[in-house]
Amino acid sequence: MMHQTIRSGSPTLSDDRDAHLRLDGLTKRYGDSVAVAALDLAVPKGELVALLGPSGCGKTTTLRMVAGLIKPTDGRIVVASQDITQVPTYRRDMGLVFQSYALFPHMTVAKNVAFGLEMRSLPKPEIERRVKEALAMVRLEALAERKPRELSGGQQQRVALARALVIRPSILLLDEPLSNLDAKLRDEMRNEIRDIQQSLGITAVFVTHDQVEALSMCDKVVVMRGGKLEQMGTPVEVYEHPATPFVASFVGRTNRLEGIAQGDGRVAIGSMAVQVPGRPGGKVEIMIRPHRMKLVDVGSGEDAASEGVNRLAGSLTRVTFVGDLLQYHVDVDGTEIVVEAASDHGRGFRKVGAPVAVLWRVEDTMVFGRGA
Ligand SMILES: Nc1ncnc2c1ncn2[C@@H]1O[C@H](COP(=O)(O)OP(=O)(O)O)[C@@H](O)[C@H]1O
Ligand SMILES: [Mg+2]
């Protein structure tokens, strides 16, 4: 199959009438430059959707337009079938969490969380009850009287989350909320945010440049590039069936080779040839995930191409030990291929410079046309 023909994204208005949040041609221009270009998106009620893409691709601008903090140049924002494009921020009923916690430093945790409710002039007992409830949700009841500076980064971000949720928003918007946390805490907070989002059944949009975060937490992933939607799908769809080479290389690691398709399912790569799924023609790029490849010693019993298995010969240039993985760097005719294998107690080191072969299954080969 040609991967470029698979388009699981581009939601149309007809097939998502029950979307809770819908963006319809949403556009933001700054002078001549386009930050967000006619973005169409439908988020079903209760789903957590990631906006994933490199820095500058328009994620924050999109989120801030949804929140009402930036005025769109064009397009519409629809929530529960109501056009809210012109509705001011404070009436949009959205909870926001940013990368910087943006807490009031002079107020206690409880006061920070109560702020939104006090702005809405709720009765005092109601405020107390809801603040307690929100702090329980993020496991901070015991720290209610502390000031933000007396909290760790993770705790501060949990206060920010409680503050966003306490108003019982219809949509939760999170902009890189975990980027300031260290790796271990980030893992914990991922699960915590996901659990809370699911237990509340709240519709949420999560902005991140981190593919692991997007894949592991979210129901759908929207891959953005240059202000445009590149692909939308479930985490498995965007990882296993990337619509474009950009998605393939941004969502997960890939090896990339250029070749000329022979029209019979074979692709010539320099003096070598490999088999690919389908019958592409012309110039193609093929991509293979490093963990789907296997490194073998030339001349060993395992070193044989067989039906459904591709083989490229090269030489080993580097072995990197990264704890759970070994990464073998192989020079194949001037192109670097990386093969990953479980490190198995550090065993598996090989001599750099040795002739090796790389094997992988034909079905694990992703193929993309390179245009005319
Ligand atoms: N106030 C602004 N004026 C001009 N350009 C802006 C402004 N805000 C953002 N941009 C540009 O819009 C693009 C998208 O920015 P942003 O949405 O912040 O990206 P991301 O959040 O994906 O990193 C970038 O090229 C950025 O430089
Ligand atoms: Mg941003």
Automatic annotation (TrEMBL):
GO terms for biological process: quaternary ammonium group transport. Keywords: ATP-binding, Cell membrane, Membrane, Nucleotide-binding, Translocase, Transport. The complex is composed of two ATP-binding proteins (PotA), two transmembrane proteins (PotB and PotC) and a solute-binding protein (PotD). Its EC number is 7.6.2.11. It comes from the Bacteria. Belongs to the ABC transporter superfamily. Spermidine/putrescine importer (TC 3.A.1.11.1) family. PANTHER family: SPERMIDINE/PUTRESCINE IMPORT ATP-BINDING PROTEIN POTA, SPERMIDINE_PUTRESCINE IMPORT ATP-BINDING PROTEIN POTA. Part of the ABC transporter complex PotABCD involved in spermidine/putrescine import. Responsible for energy coupling to the transport system. Pfam families: ABC_tran, TOBE_2. GO terms for cellular component: ATP-binding cassette (ABC) transporter complex. The keyword Cell membrane applies. It catalyses: ATP + H2O + polyamine-[polyamine-binding protein]Side 1 = ADP + phosphate + polyamineSide 2 + [polyamine-binding protein]Side 1. This is Spermidine/putrescine import ATP-binding protein PotA. Residues 21-251 form the ABC transporter domain.
